[in-house]
Design goal:
3 domains; disordered C terminus; Rossmann fold; 31% helix; six-stranded mixed sheet; single chain; 523 residues
């Protein structure tokens, strides 16, 4: 490409081996100045390992990294930062109890007279200047724990710019963002490009890759398997290159024929969030066997607190939650999580690291977190390791978990493979109700296709499914009914045949159509 801008970053023959795994196999990539390079691949394809090599978190076994045409000797993140490379990780590297200014200063502190004190005033002023220059509106005095996820991401970007980076790695930047926040992120990215920053964009969301990237490189099993031009590519062609086969991006689902018995009944539920504010406000809903009820809504409207209340992870202030088995009602309003699990409730949590796994436990033990104390995984007070091993091997194969061993700690896996372990554990138990909160967050297109098919199969077998997702495509693809949550309330429920993206989008903004008119609801 003779007319291409010069390379800001080149990777030549980069190779990284771990015990039993060749994570990166002689990889070559080029990021041109002022451009966005999209990096695609299945979970476990080697994307995160490659970025960790570039950012100095790992050292390569072979190969070299060039910045602005010169070999860069990167042995740690300080070397990467000195070379002008910044990285915003999928899981933010922020200290919640500190202010925005203190978080950005960490590791790069400005000092005052003779180094005797931290010069927060100078740091704060520079943060304000960067915020204004790049359109990153952030209050430098705010505590990080009080900021929405989208604003926390801005803090991470400012932190990289504060260190004078001109190469920015964004690892799954939209995985935890709402559609509105993603639009804001893209606006910020375009401003960064205008200011001369070059960006590596890692994502499983193919629409976003086609929209924002100038070039795409695809990895599979640790190797570069193809390049693509977003202007001439489609979601289908990118998915096929990633997975090595054609992928159904829209799940095949027959309309539900007969609705079964009531499985979940929530009546007049009130739940408070961590700040003691009312997050779930007098909410009522019902889910029946053989249906998928999707809850749509902008993140932060009480969905998290609702799921935590149903699963016993958050205290219910008032109201009632019931599970029905063969029409026999069981009140689980104030039950403990284990009791709720034993009533036949499966839970795929929104935050897998917090509520779905024990990072320092091996995969085999994470596969039986709810069932380790019963047969066949326990014989009296003794663990049946053979049964746990057999169970793990079967599920790892069935759900295509990319791991060197069932004895590897789950914390060493990629985020998508961690999610697969949780999905495998929850889907393999006998249940009446599935609570799936963001079930495909961080998963590649092939895994999403598989998970969606499994959810539909559970519905077809008579299970009740409550799906909570900020992805409208996922809600429309899977749901039989859609309930829209706004300001802690269900403001409307519609059958999938009667729903449009426009009408659901209005409901998500708190605007309800009644008698042909738009009326703003104010809770």
């Amino acid at each position: 490409m003779a007319d291409s801008p010069p390379a800001a970053l080149e990777v030549r023959g980069l190779t990284k081996r771990f015990p039993g795994v060749l994570a990166n196999d002689h990889i070559d990539i080029t990021l041109h100045k002022g451009k966005v390079l999209g990096l695609l691949g299945e979970n476990g394809a080697g994307k995160s390992t490659l970025m960790n090599l570039i950012y100095g978190l790992y050292e390569p076994d072979e190969g070299e990294i060039l910045v602005n045409g010169k070999v860069a000797h990167i042995k740690n993140p300080n070397d990467a930062i000195a070379a002008g490379i910044g990285m915003v990780h999928q899981h933010f590297q922020l200290v919640p109890v500190l202010s925005v200014t203190d978080n950005i200063m960490l590791g790069n502190e400005s000092v005052g007279f003779l180094g005797a004190f931290l010069n927060r005033r100078a740091a704060r002023q520079r943060i304000l200047e960067i915020s204004k220059q790049y359109g990153l509106e952030v209050d430098p005095d705010a505590l990080v724990q009080d900021l929405p996820v989208g604003v926390q991401q801005r803090v991470e970007i400012i932190k990289a710019l504060y260190r004078k980076c001109d190469i920015l790695i964004l690892d799954e930047p939209s995985a935890v963002l709402t559609p509105q926040e993603t639009k804001g992120l893209f606006g910020i990215m375009r401003t960064l490009l205008e200011r001369g920053v070059s960006i590596i964009f890692i994502s499983h969301k193919l629409k976003e890759v086609l929209e924002i990237c100038d070039h795409v490189t695809v990895l599979r099993l640790g190797k570069v398997v193809g390049q693509a031009n977003p202007k001439t590519s489609t979601e289908e062609s990118l998915a096929s290159m990633m997975v090595g086969r054609s992928v159904l991006l829209q799940v095949e689902k027959k309309p539900t024929t007969t609705r079964g018995n009531k499985v979940l009944h929530i009546q007049d539920l009130n739940v408070r969030d961590d700040r003691k504010l009312l997050a779930v406000d007098n909410l009522s809903l019902e889910v029946y066997g053989g249906e998928i009820l999707g809850i749509a809504g902008v993140q932060g409207n009480g969905q998290t607190e609702l799921v935590e209340a149903i699963t016993g992870l958050r205290r219910v202030e008032s109201g009632k939650i019931s599970i029905f088995e063969q029409s026999i009602e069981q009140n689980i309003t104030h039950a403990k999580p284990r009791t709720i699990t034993e009533t036949g409730v499966a839970h795929v949590p929104e935050d897998r690291r917090k509520n779905g796994m024990v990072a320092t436990f091996p995969i085999k033990d994470n596969m039986v977190l709810q069932t380790y104390y019963i047969g066949p995984f326990s014989i009296g007070i003794l663990a049946n390791e053979k049964a746990k091993d057999e169970n793990a091997r079967q599920l790892v194969k069935q759900y295509d978990v990319r791991t060197p061993s069932i004895y590897a700690n789950i914390g060493t896996l990629s985020g998508g493979n961690q999610q697969k372990v949780i999905i495998a554990r929850e889907f393999s138990r006998q249940n009446h109700l599935l609570l799936a909160a963001q079930p495909t967050r961080g998963l590649d297109v092939g895994s999403i296709e598989f998970i969606h098919k499994q959810i539909v199969a559970m519905r077809d077998a008579g299970m009740a499914v409550l799906l909570i997702s900020t992805e409208l495509d996922e809600i429309f693809s899977l749901s039989d009914r859609i309930a829209v949550m706004y300001a802690g309330k269900i403001i409307d429920t519609v059958n999938i045949d009667d729903a449009t993206r426009e009408s659901v989008g209005l409901l998500m903004a708190g605007v309800k159509r009644e008698k042909g008119l738009k009326e703003a609801t104010h809770g």
